Prior knowledge:
Oligomer: single chain
Bound molecules: 6-O-phosphono-beta-D-fructofuranose
Largest sheet: 6 strands, mixed
Strand content: 15-25%
Amino acid sequence: MxxxxxxxxxxxxxxxxPKLYIVMVGLPARGKSTIATKLKENLVHNSxxxxxxxxGELRRKMIHENxxxxxxxxxxxxxxxxxxxxxxxxxxxxAKRFINKDGxxxxxxxxxxxxxxxxxxxxxxxxHPMLFIECINDDEDILSASILxxxxxxxxxxxxxxxxxxxxxxxxxxxxxxxxxxxxxxxxIRLDSLNNRILDEELGSDIPYHDQIRDFLVTDTxxxxxxxxxxxxxxxxxxxxxxxxxxxxxxxxxxxxLARHFKNKKIPLIFTSKHMRTIQTAEPIKAxxxxxxxxxxxxxxxxxxxxxxxxxxxxxxxxxxxxxxxxKEDKYNYVYPGGEGYVTMQERIHRGIKKALYLSNPSDYIMxxxxxxxxxxxxxxxxFRRTEDVPYIYIPQDKFYHISATQSRKSFQLxxxx
Length: 418
Ligand code: F6P
């Protein structure tokens, strides 16, 4: 793989600096627009003049009749196909004008799932380097949540939620039937868009901004993550672990204080575990927000302590001394009989973080209400800690962590809320 950031040929009168076309590829609801938007933000932040050319938005502007019905996207619908090609061409021409004026990066944001469409793009936009970014994500939970967000658009307003989901799924089905994954079509990055993982890549020699773009694609960026532990529970009072205990009056008051603290921040999604104590902590916060949804994810459930569930630490020490001793010896790697250990939670916590980040886009504020062990693992995802220290990270119930992790800035603050 040869890389160089050598300056590109610039037509007379055009703005200087290297120029690049980025072409998004992928089925609907695979995170293409989210990635395009965040990539643009990142490039603009680094003083690269970037613009997105989105076919869906242009369709809604150019065609006044409702075009959200699935058969508009059916491969057999000649009229629909011709209109979609016209929209694509209009955006390609606009991208070319932008690049040949003072633009530096033009992002074509559309499905671009057929080789014919991509061929037309390459033929027309042959004056500067081009990078395809193909987004792949087949996680069913994420797909369902992304579809729910898509059908929020005005063009689905005349349908019930069920009909709108059905309609969007049919649209995906049509695109699936035409989809030809990228195949030797110049420079490309194939991305697992949920896990920020590069699945495959091929680069020609001159892809400007490549290092910056690649690094951005694999970085978990989160502008503001509020990581909160649930309020006090009856089990906490007795030092009992696991279970599904509700909040005490003090715990409920902690939840109210959190709600007041976050009242003026816009938090559209609050992620919790499936346990009562995290949901009860989230409810007052949601109540003081204008628009907010609680999303319980099993990935954020507290460590399963197997045969020790609902016991107090003292009961474990006296009735199961071998468990107590072995865990003390190597807390990170110890797995409770019939349950989990920090080490075995890692995969699901990682998945939960990915889901929360993915679903929260494009909001700048994410909130996760978790548990002691879960929050330690979430913190260690962003903050480097030796594994042996992770099970001892301080996770109080009267403070929260404010985490900010972007390509250029990382910060962690432990803050009070009253
Ligand atoms: O607050 C109790 C708790 O969340 C338990 O449910 C869990 O087993 C424990 O904390 C995790 O902390 P540690 O790993 O230090 O025992």
